[in-house]
Each structure stands twice: as C-alpha cells, then as structure tokens.
Design a protein that fits this description.
Layout: H1 2-16, H2 19-24, H3 32-48, H4 54-67, H5 74-85, H6 95-111, H7 113-118, H8 120-123, H9 127-141, H10 149-161
Helix pairs in contact: 4-5, 4-6, 4-9, 4-10, 5-6, 9-10
C-alpha cells in the first residue's frame, strides 16, 4: 500500500510539477488582482520576443522546432540541452541556465509563436551566427531520426526570415 501511494504521488508530481505543463496550462486569473498581474505580464511578454541575443534566439529556434508537432517531451528537452552544450557559445552555460532559457523561450513562443519566430532576425544580426543557430535547430529536429514535414517547413521559414536561403 505504501509503495502504491508513493508511486501515485511520484506520478502526480512528475505530471503536475513539470514546468512545461504549468507553462502550457497557466492558472486562471479570476480575481481582480490576478487579472491586473496577468495583464502586466502580457504587456511585458509582448516585448520579450525582442529581448536577448544569440543565446535566446538559438534556444527559441530549437524549442520551436521541437514543439512544432504539438509534443514537447523530456527527450526533446534533453536534445536541446545536448546540442546547446556542444555549441561553443552556449556550452559555457550551466544546465540550469539552459533549462531556464528553454522555459523562458517556450513562454515567448506560447504567447505569440509567429511573432516570436519573425523576431529572430532582430536577435541575431551576424550571418555566421544565423547559420550556426539554424544548424543547431536542424540537429534538434533530427534528434529523433525523423524530420517531420512541419519541422522541415519551420526550418525553411526561419532560413528565409534570416536571409540564409
């Protein structure tokens, strides 16, 4: 009985304690105070897509391609971390910092996916950095050994937006 209860508690915490699940299902702001707080976050989030540089853009690109099929699994998160750790610019970040960037950029994509993708050209100015970020994006798309048509289409769209094609 104790083992069963412990197992159920573990599953519950894994499911509902997952930051990505919480990001996808934010609390319902019913009270006036929560509505004001929520509105101020929405205003801040509008401009968050323009904040950052190579690190934020590369992580955003990898998160976007990982979740374009509406599934964002732990395996894909680990693929993003692995690709980031093998990059000379992102490899200096700790796993916790990379995970924080993943959460942040996932939230940016949740608020305005199209706008977040279109704003990538503001974050990465250098052509070589753009190529490097797209290569990282391709590695994440290929991490499950199958590049879905949606992933391929997003990569092409990003390459066009970044004037790589």
């Amino acid at each position: 009985r104790d083992l069963r209860d412990a197992w159920q508690e573990y599953l519950f915490r894994q499911m509902y304690g997952n930051p990505f699940v919480r990001a996808m299902f934010p609390p319902n702001p019913n009270s006036d105070e929560k509505k004001k707080e929520f509105s101020s976050f929405q205003l801040e989030d509008r401009f968050k897509k323009f904040k950052g540089g190579f690190e934020e853009a590369a992580i955003r690109m990898m998160v976007a391609v990982a979740r374009i099929d509406n599934v964002f699994s732990e395996k894909e998160i680990n693929a993003i971390i692995a690709v980031a750790k093998n990059n000379p610019k992102l490899g200096l970040l700790s796993d916790e910092n990379i995970k924080a960037l993943i959460r942040e950029q996932s939230h940016v994509l949740d608020n305005d996916f199209k706008g977040a993708v279109e704003s990538l050209s503001y974050l990465i100015k250098n052509h070589d950095d753009r190529l490097e970020a797209v290569e990282m994006m391709k590695k994440v798309a290929d991490s499950d050994f199958v590049v879905a048509p949606e992933e391929d289409q997003l990569i092409i769209e990003v390459m066009e937006l970044l004037d790589i094609i």
